[in-house]
Amino acid sequence: MGKVKIGIIGTGSISNMHMAGYNRLKNVEVVAACDISEERVKEFAKTYNIPNTFTDYNEMLKMTEIEAVSVTAWNNIHAPASIAALNAGKHVLCEKPLALNAAQAGEMVEAAKKSGKILMVGFCRRFGDNAVALKNIIDNGDLGNIYYAKAGCLRRWGNPGGWFSDKQRSGGGPVIDLGVHMIDLIRYLSGKPKVVSVTASAFHHMGMKPEVKGIQKYNSADYSEYNDVEDCAASLIKFDNGMTLFFETSWVQNRKEDRLYLELFGDKAGAKMEPEFELYENKYDYLRDSKPLLDPNGSSFEHNFVQEIKHFISCIADGAECLNPAEDGLELMKIIDAIYQSAETGHEVIIN
Ligand SMILES: NC(=O)c1ccc[n+]([C@@H]2O[C@H](COP(=O)([O-])OP(=O)(O)OC[C@H]3O[C@@H](n4cnc5c(N)ncnc54)[C@H](O)[C@@H]3O)[C@@H](O)[C@H]2O)c1
């Protein structure tokens, strides 16, 4: 079998992580790249030795040799570019969030079904060694019935600006950006329950505050200070397996430091996956803490992407079952929509 030929749509920051994955695989060749910024796509092609560049993805998708694409552009481009790629007969790995909202995500799922091609969503954190280990522990029943979970991804001063803080292009702030990873992890680890209700608040009190000095943060490729999204949000999400999740997130919040945490509470044991991996239980009438020894680099940002890309190619080349199907991205978008709806109306949102 020949090499799997890839095209990249969007050559900003995160496309470099996709390249880190593709470049490690002998059966892959990235043959084309596209960005609306001609300068950026040419630079990217030069760095990675990619022979074809485009500024319109519809033109790139005419290349019959391309078998699959990575969609690594702004969130509002995910749906149109993925649907165009699927209609052109390409497999798609689309970055998270799958779309701006559930309606768009539903159209993407339909397009994938019609085309018979793979539409995988970039929930890269599922591929970290910590998530893989915890999923295995949970699937073996060690936590028992998981009835409560807590997750947070909190930044003190980290609004990436540019398209990220422009609702039209991003769909929202930290909820749709950071929240998709955290809420997805909880759903994935606990057996993909379906959401039944959401109560949330979102706050818009801080803004960009560009005058603040001395901070290092992730910025979008085309940084600007326009900002019409939430600074932070908190939510209570209930699922059809009886589990309740408390989730909070911020890009900007007057807090001492950034914080990442993810905890699941079962009737046999509890587990913390972030900031460190620990298990808590009652064994022979004594409370016991345990700590599986994991590869310290096995859950790094780059590692997760490399594993994700490896899996995407394995789905295409070996027929492996896709671990991150678009349906999971759609389920997440229903939750994200409900968080924003509840925050706006001040009421609980019930999802049938
Ligand atoms: N999985 C993760 O942990 C993770 C981390 C960061 C970003 N992301 C996601 O990756 C995507 C890109 O984020 P980023 O940080 O690389 O942003 P970025 O601003 O660095 O790059 C986005 C690129 O998309 C290009 N673009 C916009 N419209 C386009 C179009 N119609 N056709 C082709 N290119 C187009 C822009 O010109 C820009 O170069 C977002 O959806 C983001 O949510 C995921």
Question: Care to describe what's here?
Answer:
The protein is 34% helix and 25% strand. By secondary structure, it is an alpha/beta fold. It folds into two domains: 4-125 and 304-324, Rossmann fold, CATH 3.40.50.720; 127-296 and 332-350, Dihydrodipicolinate Reductase, domain 2. The strands form two sheets. It has a nine-stranded mixed beta sheet, with helices on one face. The protein has a six-stranded parallel beta sheet with strand order 3-2-1-4-5-6, with helices on both faces. Helix 1 (15-22) links the parallel strand 1 (4-9) and strand 2 (28-34). The longest helix is centred in the C-terminal third of the chain and has 20 residues, at 326-345. The radius of gyration is 20 Å and the shape is globular. It binds nicotinamide-adenine-dinucleotide. Residues 9-14, 34-37, 40, 57, 72-75, 77, 95-96, 122, 124, 162-163, 177, 220-221 line the site of nicotinamide-adenine-dinucleotide. Pfam families: GFO_IDH_MocA, GFO_IDH_MocA_C3. Residues 133-270 form the GFO/IDH/MocA-like oxidoreductase domain. InterPro entries: Gfo/Idh/MocA-like_OxRdtase_N (IPR000683), Gfo/Idh/MocA_Oxidoreductase (IPR052515), GFO_IDH_MocA-like_dom (IPR055170), NAD(P)-bd_dom_sf (IPR036291).
Characteristic terms for this protein:
nine-stranded mixed beta sheet, Rossmann fold, Dihydrodipicolinate Reductase, domain 2, 15 strands, 352 residues, 2 domains, binds nicotinamide-adenine-dinucleotide, six-stranded parallel beta sheet, alpha/beta, 34% helix
